[in-house]
Design goal:
ion transport; Beta Polymerase, domain 2; 7-stranded mixed β-sheet; Methane Monooxygenase Hydroxylase, Chain G, domain 1; cobalt ion binding; transmembrane; cell membrane; alpha+beta; zinc
Length: 334
């Protein structure tokens, strides 16, 4: 096979994360910049390049040497993307998203992956590190990677979904823990955790729902890159992603139900406290009236000249308080 890139392609490309020459048997050879520039795949071999699209050198290389139409390159380099699949330049232009499992990152801050695949070449472009690509590289290093470009896409999609599934399982576990804790301990800190779960579920669904449509389009696309078996695997991946979207909807609804239960418990606790304060106020209201009446500074206060006056007043107030409490108890007011 002739060389992939024309003479003059740069030997060193700033922003080339890595490149592999796949042997069509599940393995491959990792290439350096000079090897990529002079790459001449043999029959059955094909090239995969992963690039950082934010680098000016990569952007210039894509326009000059990628052999793709300008509109295709612009689509691959655009700042914001949503999952989709279109036919472009005798190949497929695919935009996918993977969960962000980098240290210190939020999983719902999903990583964009742009892919163009055609005869003899696959370009993937990204900005942030994607662990699913590391998984794919490990498979290729062990010789159990993709044997063709269709295999490459099917494996990559399933690796992306594997990590999405783990995040959704973790989301479900958090909801389960909150459901149990609401029955025993109700606190304001749980409301923040529930809000975080609902926000994460909504954000994940925002990108996974269109990704499901992209996989449906891929499964229906009649391309020479895909065999009937690939179409079957892509349909299975689409069904799997549909279940993930349904699980996210269920997790969000469960979080809403837990939130309602939590608010109900907090409201009940507040009402109970207010009720106790009301009972105390009802007991002390007549006592306050008596002390206020006896405390006026005029003559003729009963018992003012008696040495037992204070004792009798206190005793009467205690009897009044006990009587009120007994009345409330008899009326089952507490």
């Amino acid at each position: 096979m002739s060389r992939l890139f024309e003479q003059g392609a740069p030997v060193e490309l700033d922003g080339l994360t890595d490149a592999w020459l796949l042997d069509g048997k599940g393995g491959g050879e990792r290439l350096g910049g000079a090897q990529v520039a002079n790459c001449e795949p043999m029959d059955g071999q094909w090239l995969w390049m992963h690039l950082d699209y934010s680098r000016p050198a990569v952007q210039a290389w894509m326009y000059r040497y990628s052999q793709l139409h300008e509109l295709t390159v612009e689509a691959l380099l655009q700042a914001e993307t949503r999952p989709r699949c279109v036919v472009a330049d005798n190949g497929l232009l695919i935009f996918l998203r993977g969960v962000n499992l980098n240290p210190g990152a939020d999983p719902e801050d999903m990583v964009s992956l742009r892919i163009w695949m055609g005869e003899g070449r696959i370009y993937t472009l990204g900005l942030r590190h994607l662990l699913s690509l590391d998984d794919l590289r490990e498979l290729m290093a062990r010789g159990t990677g993709p044997e063709g470009q269709g295999d490459f896409l099917v494996m990559l999609v399933n690796l992306l979904l594997d990590r999405v599934g783990r995040v959704i399982d973790d989301l479900y576990d958090r909801v389960d823990e909150l459901e149990e804790s609401v029955l025993t301990v109700s606190g304001h800190e749980q409301r923040g955790e529930l809000a975080s779960i609902r926000r994460q579920a909504i954000t994940l669904r925002r990108f996974l729902a269109p990704q499901r449509e992209a996989l449906n389009r891929l499964a229906a696309e009649r391309s020479a890159l895909f065999s009937n078996e690939h179409h079957l695997y892509l349909r299975e991946a689409s069904d799997r992603l549909t279940r993930f979207v349904e699980d996210l909807d269920a997790a969000r609804e469960r979080a809403g139900v837990v939130h309602e239960s939590l608010v109900s418990n907090l409201t009940e606790q507040t009402n109970n406290r207010m009720y106790i304060l009301s009972v105390i106020a009802a007991v002390f209201l007549p006592l306050s009236f008596v002390t206020g009446l006896l405390g006026i500074n005029v003559g003729g206060i009963p018992g003012a000249e008696s040495s037992l006056g204070f004792f009798l007043v206190v005793l009467g107030m205690l009897l009044l308080a006990v009587g009120l409490l007994g009345f409330f108890r008899w009326r089952r007011w507490f």
